[in-house]
Every structure is written in structure tokens, then in C-alpha cells.
Amino acid sequence: EPEVTQTPSHQVTQMGQEVILRCVPISNHLYFYWYRQILGQKVEFLVSFYNNEISEKSEIFDDQFSVERPDGSNFTLKIRSTKLEDSAMYFCASSVRTDEQFFGPGTRLTVL
Amino acid sequence: AQKITQTQPGMFVQEKEAVTLDCTYDTSDPSYGLFWYKQPSSGEMIFLIYQGSYDQQNATEGRYSLNFQKARKSANLVISASQLGDSAMYFCAMRGTNNDMRFGAGTRLTVKP
To answer: Does the beta carbon of B41 lie under 8 angstroms from any beta carbon of chain A?
Structure first.
């Protein structure tokens, strides 16, 4: 069964460094999303992406964040200058339409 | 603004019994979708069930059913015949017309043998 994959599973970085989190959505899906979950808290929407552009973003998704679909398969989230409070699990998700969203296993980002 | 409320931080159920996890929502969008996800201790997010705001019938997926009461703005998840493997966090979520999705705070379900 096709699934969303994410790399790396765990990323450790120093405060102020740039990180790129990678996702490969399910191949026939058209909508892509990033979410984050700070340890012990609820899942928070960051951004949705459709037709090669951002369709919606939350207040969390400020100028430090950007997304890209550089080729036909990858979907990336870049954090330009990480802060301690960016430490969280980051989930990528994809969907065919705007109904079922399938999540990847997540990337745990630790900012030191 | 959209809001999702899960008022039960924790629930216990006896194995093989049914359990209802509550979810209420608030939105001004005419079209929206409601989701339930399961998050076991391993951390992954597992899609369980989806209900569109215009769907006439309540969604069902195996042992999961969604009790959708549009006038009350509630979308409760019913798990029938609970199994030990159902122990996990359960999140209710809502997608608005702008395709953003908001999650509730979650309910931790513990199934007792």
C-alpha cells in the first residue's frame, strides 16, 4: 500500500541553523501539507500546498518557513534559522482531494 | 475562526465494549470536513474516518463510526468492540474551505483487559 515517507526520522541542529525536512507524498496525490506537534501537545497546521503554490498557511508559518516541491516527487519544508521552540515532530501529509489526508511517520526536530 | 473541542482528556473502556469520544466544532465555513486520527505511542498519525459537511449519512469504517450531528456541531467517534490495540491518543480535526486543518487537544483512550 502506498504511503507518505519522510526523511530524516530525527534531525538535531544548532539554534540559528537552517534545516530542510523532506517528504515524498503518495504519487497520485495533489494536495500536500505540513503539520507540527510539540511534545505532548496537539497537532498544529502549518501550511497546505496545491498546484505548486501555498493554498493556506497558519500564523505559525512565518517568514522563517518555506515549502517547495522541487521535482515531481519531493515536498520540502525549510526552516531558515531554527529556534529552540521549533523543536517538535513535523508531519507531512498528502491527499488526492481535500478529504482523507494521509500522514507520514514524522521527523523529530531537536534544536539545541 | 475554526475551533475544535475535545473535552475528554482521558477515557477508559473495558475490552470488547463500545466507547464514544466526543468532539464539537465551530466554523462559519459552509463546507468543511471532519476527521478522526489515532496516534499510538509510537507517534504516527493514522487516519480513521472522514465526514463531509454535506454527507447525508454518518461515516463508518469497520469498527469506527462517526456520529455526525450537524445542528449540534458535533462529530463524535464511536469505537465498537474495543481492543487492547485501540489504546492511543485520538484527535478530532476539521478542514475548512481554505484547506487548512485544525486539530483538537486529543483524548487518551485506555482499553482495559
So the answer is: no
Which cell is A13 given?
A: 541542529
The string of pLDDT tens digits covering residues A24-66 is: 999 989 999 999 999 988 899 999 999 899 998 999 999 999 9
CA A103-B33-A102 angle, 5° bins: 10
A51: chain B residues, CB-CB within 8 Å: none
Chosen from B23, B37, B100 to mutate, greatest number of chain A CBs within 10 A: B100
Q: Which residues of B touch A43 (CB under 8 A)?
A: 37, 45, 91, 93, 103
Q: Which residues of A fall within a CB distance of 8 Å from B102?
A: 45
Amino acid at the residue A10? H
d(CA B59, CA A75): 31
Tell which residue, A101, A81, A80, has the closest CA to residue A23. A101
Nearest-CA neighbor of B6 among B79, B98, B83, B94? B94
Task: State the Cα–Cα distance between residues B36 and B88, nearest whole angstrom.
Answer: 12
Q: What is the pLDDT of residues B42-83, one digit of tens each?
A: 889 999 999 999 998 999 999 999 999 999 999 999 999 999
**How many angstroms separate the most distant Cα atoms in chain A?**
38
